[in-house]
Design brief:
Length: 104
């Protein structure tokens, strides 16, 4: 069961053209870009293909949003520090603090 859900989420990630890690803003941005691109009203050449792609994009977005709603976020100190260390300003602060030579 878990493997099937993982594969479903992985396919949704591919449809929405998301990287391996993405923020909620990035998920929504990719969704909006793809919907605009493939919306049947904008796609005059092949409306059936556009309708099918729009349905797949909407379904993929629903899968990703459902996963995000049920994801348990960790508020452990080490997990928060690890997440913050991915941002350059926090990286500098953790390593060098407010040192006038090294700090920003």
């Amino acid at each position: 069961m878990t493997n099937r859900k993982y594969n479903e989420i992985k396919k949704a990630i591919e449809i929405l053209e998301l990287p391996e890690t993405a923020t909620m803003d990035r998920i929504k941005k990719n969704y909006k870009i793809l919907i605009k691109k493939w919306h049947p009203d904008k796609c005059i050449d092949n409306p059936e293909k556009c309708k099918e792609l729009t349905q797949r994009i909407n379904h993929a977005y629903e899968i990703i949003m459902n996963y995000c709603k049920h994801y348990e976020y960790s508020f452990k100190k080490e997990d928060i520090e690890q997440a913050l260390s991915k941002h350059s300003d926090d990286w500098w602060y953790v390593r060098f603090g407010d040192d006038p030579i090294w700090g920003k």
